[in-house]
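Complex 278.
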Amino acid sequence: MSEPDARPWSERLRSAVAGRGRLCVGIDPHPELLDAWGLPHTPVGLETFAHTCVEAFGGEVAVVKPQVAFFEAYGSAGIAVLERTLADLVELGALALADAKRGDIGSTMAAYAGAWLGDGSPLAADAVTLSPYLGFDALAPALDVAARTSRGVFVLARTSNPEGGDLQRSVGSGGVGVAQSVVAAAAQRNRETADLVGLVVGATRGHGLDLGEFEGPVLAPGVGAQGATASDLASVFPDHRELLLPNVSRSVLRAGPDPAALREAAVRTRDEIEAALR
Ligand SMILES: O=c1ccn([C@@H]2O[C@H](COP(=O)(O)O)[C@@H](O)[C@H]2O)c(=O)[nH]1
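Predicted structure with LLZGTKA7 bound:
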């Protein structure tokens, strides 16, 4: 097993994106995809699926995002597969982003922080997704651990699903929209530690946010199966292209189970994204 990369998160992320492009590809072992790949709905099927994805993407794509829910569905055996998947991605030089969407009161958040971002934790990833809807400040333990261990976080701001709009666009007591206040808090924290806090902003529609003050990474899910296209990215994110990480899961994964075909689908998608953002 290789040593953890001690460079600051900002440097690790920027060098991965410079070398491999901006795609974040997902490992989302949906039951329908297991069927399509001829795999059983068991931990063995899950492991074969995840291992094939690691083999296809790990040496090629900058950021790979296992969706934790599909591993949790198999209980402790699924979590063990997730642990191995995260470790194997790092061995191949990809950044592993655990899509766990954690968020809780501060004291519990400290436990989540240790689990997903702590050195030596079996589930430690390079970055994790967080939900700020128990308060952005409640995420502080995770931000502190990430800063200390050269890892990153991506905080939900304006999600890709249509149901998120009512809550995320609503206006808080300071007269600022809820999602916009997440953007402001993230920008403020990044003045201390560059790029530490990324945002999740869906690519599926105009997000209506002012990202002008925010210089960190933006994970943009919704390309492919949810309807957004690579060519939508430039108009949805007109001023935020350097560290934009469009996430594509199902529309690439449907190219499996042949690892070469999967890799080719990821590379084609990445090239489309790079051409659209040029
Ligand atoms: O706003 C959000 C936040 C996270 N996701 C996650 O991204 C992938 C998208 O998968 P596709 O197959 O490309 O639709 C999935 O893991 C979601 O849970 C999101 O879609 N939107």
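The chain has one domain: 9-276.
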